[in-house]
Design goal:
With 135 residues, the chain is of the alpha/beta class. It contains seven helices and five strands. It has a five-stranded parallel β-sheet with strand order 3-2-1-4-5. Helix 5 (85-93) packs across helix 6.
Length: 135
């Protein structure tokens, strides 16, 4: 999973929003891991997921979604991680008990494709892959 010098940590959508917006929510160990990460990955599906949350009124971003996403992807060390065919197939192939949420499946499969760690508060994902997740 990469040496500490070049280690990539992929952010689940909620952790990306909390980190980029400097909101409370991240655990102390999650903040420490983020500070130490050489690279921070954000899956493009997280942009879609955030858009749905904004549309539903569950999350508010300023001044608007496009500007917020552009600013959050431009943060130091952040890399946008696109969805590829291999990642899509891997996401569809995940077995139970992995959660059914399509975004979670794509984010997790992107993490494994990049041999990275996933920073998530999601207990179901952490139970499924304790060695691949951090919180």
């Amino acid at each position: 999973m990469g040496s500490p010098v070049d280690r990539l940590i992929v952010l689940d959508t909620h952790t990306w929003v909390w980190w980029a917006a400097e909101l409370p929510g991240l655990s102390t160990s999650a903040r420490r891991e983020l500070e130490q990460a050489a690279r921070v990955g954000v899956c493009t599906i997280s942009c879609w997921e955030l858009g749905l949350l904004v549309k539903r009124g569950s999350v508010d971003v300023e001044p608007d979604l496009r500007s917020w996403v552009a600013r959050a992807l431009a943060l130091d060390r952040v890399e946008e991680l696109p969805l590829t065919a291999d990642i899509a197939v891997a996401a569809a192939s995940l077995e139970e008990p992995f959660p059914r949420d399509p975004a979670d499946r794509i984010i997790y499969s992107t993490t494994t494709a990049h041999d990275a760690l996933l920073l998530t508060k999601d207990r179901a994902i952490r139970r499924y892959a304790p060695s691949r997740t951090i919180w």
